[in-house]
Write a structure and sequence with these properties.
Radius of gyration: 24 Å
CATH class of the largest domain: Alpha Beta
Largest sheet: 6 strands, mixed
Structural class: alpha/beta
Strand content: 15-25%
Number of helices: 13
Shape: globular
Distance between the termini: 37 Å
Number of domains: 2
Number of strands: 14
Length: 314
């Protein structure tokens, strides 16, 4: 029976293990196949059902859809949906290579799964609208791409533990007179494509003139060229912008009128509990061994956007 361990009928009658036996057992444990170890994460799923059920239930469990985790292991690579136009999180560097916070995170997940961060394939979306359909159709295994958890998304997808906090924020030129969000009423503001983004801005700044662009990179370029007084993006990439353009831009800090306090999570096809369990475990390991903090500091220069669950004492 897959996933079940066979135990001796009378464990108490076994002789005391010798030092040689202990060493041999240790070597055997260290040589355990990676696939077996990871697949065991699903033991509380179909395997547990089989243990507690009769022949009919066992057949149903065996006929259940294959978990995404097993498909990844069988395939030998992780397919990740992402974007190349998310500032600081997924973009092309001067060499044309895909880099960023989300790219580092996805590679860390791949390394944990397959022992090699290069065993990964990125499907690059032209915009954020492709993220949900790609997961629902099974075209990608996971999505790591500034994926905020809205109610509408949570109804059709599963999401991991959050890995980064991020408000929706206004970036303005450092020399501009705007101090609060209300100061942007009747002013032109750019942002990425999406009715939900426009609704967030209008909800806080009713008279703002919102101009949407296909992606955040294009909307930022329009803002830099003087076609708008403000550029709206999440506070996490906003920090990257301020760092990369010292003295040129700043973020409006308006605690009295904050816009969409949110977090980024890894998107997973709804109902794939085994893969969701693994991703949550991987993020927890990254928090425990410090890799999550390293990624935050590399791209955002600080760790103060690490979510609360990852700040709890070990």
């Amino acid at each position: 029976m897959a996933g079940a361990e066979e135990w001796p009928a009378d464990a108490g009658s076994d002789p005391e293990p010798t030092g040689q036996d202990t060493r041999a057992a240790s070597v055997k444990d260290e040589a355990m196949d990676r696939r077996h170890m990871l697949t065991a994460l699903g033991g509380v799923g179909a395997g547990a059902v089989v243990l507690a059920a009769g022949p009919a239930q066992e057949a149903a469990a065996q006929a259940a859809p294959q978990s995404g985790l097993k498909r990844i292991l069988d395939r030998g690579k992780l397919i990740v949906g992402t974007r190349s136009t998310t500032i600081g999180f997924g973009f092309k560097d001067a060499k044309g290579e895909l880099v960023g916070f989300d790219i580092d995170l996805a590679k860390a997940i791949a390394k944990g799964l397959l022992g090699d961060e290069t065993k990964i394939e990125f499907e690059v979306f032209p915009g954020g609208a492709e993220r949900v359909p790609a997961l629902v159709s099974g075209r990608v295994d996971i999505v790591v791409s500034q994926f905020s958890v809205f109610e509408s998304r949570a109804q059709v997808l599963d999401f991991s533990l959050p890995y980064c906090n991020s408000d929706f924020s206004a970036i303005v030129k450092a020399s501009s007179p705007y101090k609060k969000h209300k100061d942007l009423n009747v002013k032109v503001a750019t942002t990425g494509q999406g009715d939900e983004l426009k609704a967030l801005i209008i909800g806080a700044i009713p008279e703002a003139k919102v101009e949407m662009y296909p992606n955040f990179s294009d909307s930022f370029t329009a803002f830099r060229q003087g076609r708008a007084e403000a550029f709206f993006n999440d506070s996490a990439p906003a920090r990257y912008i301020v760092r990369e353009f010292p003295g040129q831009f700043r973020v409006i800090l308006d605690d009295e009128n904050r816009i969409d306090v949110n977090q980024y999570s890894v998107g997973i096809k709804q109902g794939d509990q085994v893969l969701l369990n693994y991703v949550n475990w991987a993020l927890t390991r990254m928090r425990l061994d410090g890799r999550l903090e390293v990624i935050h500091k590399r791209w955002l220069e600080s760790a103060d956007l690490i979510p609360g669950w990852a700040r709890m004492p070990i």
